[in-house]
Amino acid sequence: MNRGLIFILGLLLFSSLVAVASTYGAVSEEEARNRFTSLGCTSCHRPGGVARSWDEIISNLRSWGRQYQDIDEAVSNEVIYLGNIRFNSFDELMAQMQRNVGASDSDMAMLKEFFQAVFRGEVADTPVADDGGQGGMGIPMNMDTTSIVLAVVVIVIVVVAIAYIRTSSSK
Length: 171
Fold this sequence. Notes:
Blueprint: H1 3-23, H2 29-38, H3 54-67, H4 71-78, E1 80-81, E2 85-86, H5 90-101, H6 105-119, H7 145-169
Antiparallel strand pairs: 1-2
């Protein structure tokens, strides 16, 4: 095997590892929503409930992320609990929510991390298509950006490797 091909294959492996490492530990919206539901948060946070639904929470966090410098400022200005109680910080709000449902620290840490990522704009909006979440041709609409970038990088590297092999074998 010539050195150029080894270099290209090494580059492919390296880029794959970088992409996988960048997504390691990241919580998906589906995981966070399932945790939110399993903890019982939807007893209040549901359409027609006494508190904002999941979709409204996510929409608000996205909007606040464009409007406010930090999540504490957004919470202190935007969140009103039970009609008249305001929170000074995101942590204070989440501590109250934890007490309401009796969630573990690790469960709340996961939700806090996810909500903060949404606020910072690090979680892609995942619209649900009319075809059951399939974007036509069977492609899930909730593929994250990193997966798409990784797929493009792999395709480019494979095309370059094939072109390299063809040019080096014709010499």
